[in-house]
Fold this sequence. Notes:
The chain has helices at residues 12-15, 52-58, 111-124, 130-133, 142-145, 164-172, 182-187, 246-255, 266-271, 303-310, 315-320, 354-363, 382-394, 407-415, 433-441, 456-459, 465-476, 480-497; strands spanning 2-3, 31-36, 66-69, 72-78, 81-86, 92-97, 146-150, 153-157, 209-215, 219-224, 237-242, 260-261, 278-293, 327-329, 371-376, 399-404, 421-427, 500-513. The chain is of the alpha+beta class. The strands form 3 sheets. Strands 2, 9, 10, 11, 12, 13, 14, 15, 16, 17 and 18 form an 11-stranded mixed β-sheet that branches. Helix 10 runs antiparallel to helix 12 (354-363), helix 15 (433-441) packs antiparallel against helix 17 (465-476) and helix 17 packs antiparallel against helix 18. It is globular. The protein starts with a strand and ends in a 20-residue tail after the last strand. Residues 76-446 form the Solute-binding protein family domain.
Amino acid sequence: xxxxxxxxxxxxxxxxxxxxxxxxxxxxxxxxxxxxxxxxxxxxxxxxxxxxxxxxxxxxxxxxxxxxxxxxxxxxxxxxxxxxxxxxxxxxxxxxxxxxxxxxxxxxxxxxxxxxxxxxxxxxxxxxxxxxxxxxxxxxxxxxxxxxxxxxxxxxxxxxxxxxxxxxxxxxxxxxxxxxxxxxxxxxxxxxxxxxxxxxxxxxxxxxxxxxxxxxxxxxxxxxxxxxxxxxxxxxxxxxxxxxxxxxxxxxxxxxxxxxxxxxxxxxxxxxxxxxxxxxxxxxxxxxxxxxxxxxxxxxxxxxxxxxxxxxxxxxxxxxxxxxxxxxxxxxxxxxxxxxxxxxxxxxxxxxxxxxxxxxxxxxxxxxxxxxxxxxxxxxxxxxxxxxxxxxxxxxxxxxxxxxxxxxxxxxxxxxxxxxxxxxxxxxxxxxxxxxxxxxxxxxxxxxxxxxxxxxxxxxxxxxxxxxxxxxxxxxxxxxxxxxxxxxxxxxxxxxxxxxxxxxxxxxxxxxxxxxxxxxxxxxxxxxxxxxx
Length: 533
């Protein structure tokens, strides 16, 4: 079977605080300028990054083997690979690379670079390695299972007949199949780190843009690659200003100093359509915002306590206020739009019920409640949601002490299991229930030394052998109807005892100037290069 579908602007004004930035009549005609909270960025190494914002930027600078079709996110289009063949038994995928793949420095890119890059992900062992190891590509097997028989071919052998679209989404369209410039990265290796430190603040890959500059806490600047052999970006530069405050983002947009604001509050999104020259755009994405609970510590080691938390979330009230326009209330871990997802009603069966929560707490041995710390990052809706939970919980005798921090600090604490409760976000790259089940339910090794930081289940210390077996059974069920039913039952059970109290499925919501055209996004990818002016 064959599948196929056919000079840097001065940084000064870009990085000055908003109050000091001179008013501009318009943004540069050849640049996309956005305001975005990018404080979660810590590295641009495709083997290491996990944050949504960094993934968005990297996947606009680095091509993977395939890409999501902008018009149909359930389909795939060529990227590094111009086509791919699947064996009749479903156990081998052969990717045929495009001709004339060239790195930004003019060096040709080959299958050897890509093979080395994929093996590097596994050998480094950061959280992203899970995207390969869960499909059998381990340190012990990857040399045999992924090969490059010539300069333009990658052969991927599977140990089991995984659904094709899962492999394409989880591996081939993922940052783990980005082609790095092997010679450049190896030349900058330090103490056996395979160039990890070198890639902290640069990209060495094949893609429409390359990272020209990153000033932490200030800005990211991308420039178009002159040697890129794919579709050329319509705008030659992308300038991302780090702006945390939603009010400041709105002001910059209204003044015309930016083309698009990415982190506006619901009230801004509601009011801005009345502003001259501004348009609000939205798309539902497969990302969940939730309260993670550390099951390795009291009181969240008790499933009745975890269930009580769900009755302290005012889903209906939040839908009309804080999350209006930025998400939809959802208590299930599987996002709407994914295969196997419960519908809207079944996926959010809870309502605020203080008495029910108190009864569950009493059954768990906490009739007088308890005191814990709730970590909150810099998401614009994080603090209001935390305050709603805090207020409701106080009526059940629970004291939630809210501790605010940057997203980078929040993710670091969460990945180190250094928390009691935390409000977090997680996005899957797979339009299938397994994308979330394989992370939020499945946990291959709960030991602290395993450091499986890419698994939210591990971060919360949640391990259940029966649940692990059910996730695996659903993955390989060949009957689609039965497979969907297995995921439905899994979602219903996890809502009763899982380690996360899900609040909402998020939307990408933004406001843009009407002078910016062809802003293109879907649930899995944002395509900077398609934007025009």
